Amino acid sequence: MIGSRFIDKLKTILGRASLLYLTIYTYHCNAEILSEDLTVISSADPQSNEIQSFIIIPQDQLIQQGIKQQTNQHIIAQQTPFVIEYNKKLKDSETLQWSVKVSSKQYGTINLLSNFPGNGKLLNSGFVWQSDYLNKTVKNRQRLVFRPKPFAHQPIMYKKGRGASGGRRNYGGGTTHIDDKKYNPKLSYTVKLNILKSARIVSSHKAILEMDKKDMIRQEYINHYNIKRYGEGENGNIPIPARKEISAIPDKPVNLKGNPLTESKYRLMVDDGMLDLARKINNVYIAHKKKLKGSTSFYDLDSKKIYIPDSNLWVSSGWRNPERNEWYSNAVNGIHQRGGAIDLIIMAPSNSRDSAIGYWVLWQALENQKKNINAYWQLEINGRPMTRQELEQDIEPKNGIPDAFDKADHLHANIHY
Amino acid sequence: MQIFITKLRVTLCIALFTYAELCSANANFSDYFQTEPVIKSAIADRVTYYYSEDIELTDAQQKAELLYLNSQLSSIETIYTEQAIYWFIRGLNDRNIAAYYTHLKEQIPANKYIKNKNNAYKKALQLAKTNPEKLSAAIYSTMKHGLSLDLKIQATQFELAQGGNVDNESAYWYLHWSNIDQLKKAGRQQEAEDAYKQMQTAMQANKVDMSVYADLNQQVENQTFNASAEETIHSPKEEVGKNKLSSKEVVMPSLLILALISLLLVTVYEFFIKKRRSKHKPN
To answer: Is A349 in contact with B238 (Cβ distance < 8 A)?
Structure first.
């Protein structure tokens, strides 16, 4: 009897405690939810603006937008300042306090355009700026305007070569990760507005301005625009893709092994004819291999009949985001960034006889169908195209196969630009 | 006087040519091979340029350039004889000279310089053996073509240890496959199996997307552990070479047999003629 009473009381206490906890929790959560009382302008691009995303364009720099061959290029609009406005009427007795938190410490500070007094401080988690309490005498206190700090490109950190311990270099940045603080951070600004009356918060409002993946990709192009590789040589001039030029990754042609059409972790890419080119190359390779297997007319330079291995083609690289390109490629203006180039490997141990024959068959297939394919291709070794001599001579090793095919590490092909 | 003028002309031509070459030699050794050349960089750059670019020079100009570089490298041999990188550059220039003679279809000097190249690369690899970091992945990748299998394995393994030298991630895993393939060819089964395990460990450490590499891994595994896989993948050409006679090899014995038959027929004919003559001979 006593036991059941005790249990009932316990139930009541627990029930009330849960209710109290829920109330407090809900109250705090409500304070954190995004406010509909704030209107946000984050970007000149309507699509970016709609989701409060943005790109950061350096001031006084004219950047071309429109990356695909068929797209009309135009100069990208100058950076729109971020404008966050409280859209309800304020009472004279109410004061405001704005704060901005930047997600990345490295790209921390902001350029405040509103003439509000306040202080900024750098924390481990990022940069925080907070205004003083703004009373009715502060002009336009309902509208906070600021610009993000521009990104800085640091070419030297991409330099190729061995790692610090002399072993394998730990390739970083956009190669294996996105949203890497050092290379391509997903930058976001959390803007909070507290409305106070008699030093007591009466309402709190929050807006988050955050790059989505498309804008992160576009930002990479901006960060690498007009840069020199390792700080030397010619300047890059790859235009910035418009949002509509960035799309989901299509499926590879059947029988084409290896990576998807991009190794980027964004799950998005730019395709400017690369998929079509990959399909054509794969088809002519398969057809030519079949033809040679069925005939007796493929001989090496020593007039010995060549056995045709049944190696597939392997996609090693398709579209590269600029971060990846700077890590892996020697070409600052590499066409891989335009979505118009593809790298293919013969699926056999590199520099083996099967690999060499595979590249020879592939080369013949492409040369025979030059008009139909209507593209450019080259065999590469250590990041350079083969010389004419290497395509003709057989000295390294002397095995009846031209050196270019023995030494090739991949075939690069791209559409004509 | 006439001799003096001729000499002067030749000297001026060489000077002009050397100057022109220095201007055009824009391939940078350190950029291409990702390490410092140790020797005078102008020489290393010119050797690199000749190796990596299409050369638009007349045969005579090419010869002058190559022999000039050769003499420059010979003159510093005693200073740098213990430097692996010197022997690599020396070998690279020998390769360039071999390519030049091959272009002229002069096989004897071409073979001589190929041999020189292989010896120079062998020396570079020997000198780098205790400290492979003396040379870069790009250098190992350049040297391995045309060396004996043991040296090729050594160069490949040093290249692998430095992360490979190709501008895409896939090529690194293909280099692992190449290492396994070569070990199998050399009959070093246990090492091939160890190399396969190392490859798998490295793939896991690098968080490789195994769904992308499933086909490749299957082929590598088959080749590593299945004796017949090695044959399927690598030997057909060599078997063709070993088992089937080349056209020359087939023609030569046929001619010999034909000659023997002809000789026999002639002997038989002579025998009959002699016999007939002896019949008609007056006693």
So the answer is: no
